[in-house]
Amino acid sequence: MEPPKMNPVVEPLSWMLGTWLSDPPGAGTYPTLQPFQYLEEVHISHVGQPMLNFSFNSFHPDTRRPLHRECGFIRLKPDTNKVAFISAQNTGVVEVEEGEVNGQELCIASHSIARISFAKEPHVEQITRKFRLNSEGKLEQTVSMATTTQPLTQHLHVTYKRVTP
């Protein structure tokens, strides 16, 4: 079967497409946590619709035990650089982030966050993300978050190497 043609609406995000692996391991920190490292595999694809599909799967660097998971969609408002990032996470958080793509950089911030009734505290109240394709062709992601007990603070930074287009 022939792969679907990319919908022209998502062309400004085509630089994100592919399977990516963290290289080196990602780094996490937060005022309430000990610094940590993680491995992550990212799949960003399309099926011809005017959106991208994504999944982020992180693992413990030593044991390969599954950690954080999230999946969803990245939509572009046609004929603009406005982007929506819709994500469901294995922690019970569902979020919509919105922002803009400018060249090979995507900056988004939470628009709405919902959680399951028994999500552990402190609750996430705000998230920002920045994706960019660096000069070496690697994808970088920086995530900051605010919780009910902490102001907006950088939480994660990871660089990915593309392993398949």
UniProtKB/TrEMBL annotation:
One term of GO molecular function: isomerase activity
Requisite cofactors: heme b
Assigned keywords, A-Z: Cytoplasm, DNA-binding, Heme, Iron, Isomerase, Metal-binding, Nucleus, Phosphoprotein, Zinc, Zinc-finger
Primary location: cytoplasm
Record-stated family: In the C-terminal section; belongs to the nitrobindin family.
Function according to Swiss-Prot or TrEMBL: Heme-binding protein able to scavenge peroxynitrite and to protect free L-tyrosine against peroxynitrite-mediated nitration, by acting as a peroxynitrite isomerase that converts peroxynitrite to nitrate. Therefore, this protein likely plays a role in peroxynitrite sensing and in the detoxification of reactive nitrogen and oxygen species (RNS and ROS, respectively). Is able to bind nitric oxide (NO) in vitro, but may act as a sensor of peroxynitrite levels in vivo, possibly modulating the transcriptional activity residing in the N-terminal region.
Pathway: Nitrogen metabolism
Protein name per the record: Peroxynitrite isomerase THAP4
Name of one Pfam family that matches: THAP4_heme-bd
Subunit structure: Homodimer.
Gene3D superfamilies assigned to the protein according to its UniProt record, in alphabetical order: 2.40.128.20
